Structure formats: structure tokens, C-alpha cells
Fold this protein.
Amino acid sequence: MSSALLAVRTLACRSLRSATPPDFDQLQRLVAYVGRFPQKLHQASEEQHLFRAVERRAPAAATRAIARAKRDHAACLGYLNRLDDALRRWTRGQSSAGGEVALMADDYVRFCRLHGRIEARDVLSVAAQVLQPDDWRTIAQAYAATNDPLDASKSHADCAMALRQMVL
């Protein structure tokens, strides 16, 4: 997700510096990717499989951390909605929204990185101690089932192709 958001920020900043319109189609695909895969599928799998398994094995150790992670997931939706709104306004000709797109993408990626560090420290550290091999297999299968098109991408060209093939 961070890579997609950084790409949004980079495309927006380049456009603003050069005073030329960005590739709005690419920006829309990147934002749609963030909304579809990390936001709706990855986080849902995390909550349904990882968090539940940890809560089942060590409820006292993880309750507060999991509640925080879920609140962060909800906050991500707010970041996504604001980014999407600014991009729509920019696409419709409101030039001032371009700076908002760059700023919101940057804020969103900072929030996601902080969330990831906290989740690793407070949830995954407990998971590593209490989950059994069967738990990890179930979690891995759930993540694999999201069919994230960028997971298999090994290059910029692969990413661009995967994003072009996404149905908006």
C-alpha cells in the first residue's frame, strides 16, 4: 500500500512542478488499488483471521493492541476517502486539489507506516509467541485469497500492467 501511495504522491508532485496535467487514469487506478486490496481485502483478512486467532490464543495479551489496530483500520478509510475526494476534484479541473492529493497521499503513507510499526510491535509479537502452525497456514491462505495484483509484480512494468488490468 505504501508503494502505491508514494506513487500517487510522486505523480502529483511531478505534475505540480511541471505545471502539466498528471496521468489521471494512473492516479485513479492507484487510489482504486489502495481502496480495494489493502483497505477492503487485506485489512478484512487481518481482522477476521490474524486478530481472531491471536484473541483466541491470548486474549489478555492482545485486546488493547487489536482494538488500536482496528481503530487504525477505520482511520485508513478516512484517509482514503479524503484522498479520493481530492483526486476527483483535481480530475474535474480544480487545480488546487493537486496539492491536496500530494499532501494526503503523504499523510496516508506516514499513518500506514506508523500503523505497521505499532501492529508489528504489539500484535505480531504476540502472534509469534502464541499462534500454532495451523493458525499461520489459515492466515496465509486468507491473505493469498485476496489475489492482490501487485504481490506478484517484480518490476515497475509489472505493476503498471497489473494496474491497467484492474477493472475500476
Q: What stands out?
A: The radius of gyration is 18 Å. The chain is about 85% helix and 0% strand. Residues 2-165 form a domain with the Four Helix Bundle (Hemerythrin (Met), subunit A) fold (CATH 1.20.120). The chain has one domain: 2-165.
